[in-house]
Write a structure and sequence with these properties.
234 residues; 36% helix; seven-stranded mixed beta sheet; 8 helices; alpha/beta; 7 strands
């Protein structure tokens, strides 16, 4: 791994922690909160978020069977289901939904948002984090004539994206590549069109700058941050 790749990996690990902090700041609080994590993976982040909320009423949805089994071993109740389809959950049941680094992998974002609205109670919140299509790393990639750094990707087999650290970003699990990469303004508009209100948002990361410079820059210009985190109320 060359020096640039190591630096990109360093930024990625640090940014992941910042995303989790941003998500935690948007979480509700209360022992009666019913919480669902979409794309819960091994369940560790889900359980930690539930501790922040102070609730034991938690569920996860995971499409990869092997990861769902790990989450169950970590004592998380998990539905094995595809988020491009109807959620296996009753309507008007939940107080909070999180989906971190999930929506970019979906082939049907319309289904996802409509299902989130269906299963949330009135006043419930959905918290989404995803890579920002308008991030400066993508703008510079396009200026150079390349595919945007964060996708959308063209193939499940080969990389058509010029990136300094392909090994770091190559996901080891059998999941869809980035199909829907969006800007903050587009995501907010889509949430409004689906009837969500009181939308709050923050930017996280600001390539190629490290923390804490990236934190200040993403606060000043969240529309060009590396990642975006959004909270919306039904």
């Amino acid at each position: 791994m060359n020096l640039l790749s190591k630096y990109v990996e360093f930024l990625g690990i640090r940014t992941e922690n910042e995303i989790e902090n941003a998500v935690s700041n948007f979480l509700p609080n209360g022992s009666n909160i019913k919480y669902l994590d979409c794309g819960c993976d091994n369940g560790i982040k889900t359980i930690n978020r539930a501790r922040t909320i102070r609730t034991s009423k938690i569920w996860g949805i995971e499409s990869i069977n092997a990861r769902a089994k790990v989450a169950r071993k970590n004592n998380l109740s998990v539905y094995i289901s595809n988020l491009n389809r109807k959620f296996p959950i009753k309507s008007n049941l939940l107080d909070c939904i999180t989906a971190t680094e999930v929506v970019e992998h979906l082939s049907d974002v319309d289904n996802f948002l409509s299902e989130c609205k269906r299963v949330l109670k009135k006043g419930g919140s959905v918290i989404i984090s995803t890579e920002n299509l308008a991030g400066w790393q993508n703008i510079f990639s396009l200026v150079l004539g390349n595919q945007p750094y964060t996708g959308p990707y063209l193939s499940k087999v080969f990389s058509a994206v010029a990136r300094p650290s392909g090994k770091f970003y190559k996901h080891p699990l059998p999941m869809d590549p980035h199909l829907n990469v969006m800007t903050l303004k587009a995501l907010i508009r889509l949430l409004k069109l689906y009837g969500f209100n009181n939308i709050e948002s923050v930017g996280v990361g600001f390539m190629p700058f490290p923390y804490p410079f990236s934190s200040g820059l993403s606060w000043l210009d969240k529309y060009h941050s590396t990642y975006i985190v959004v909270k919306a109320i039904k």
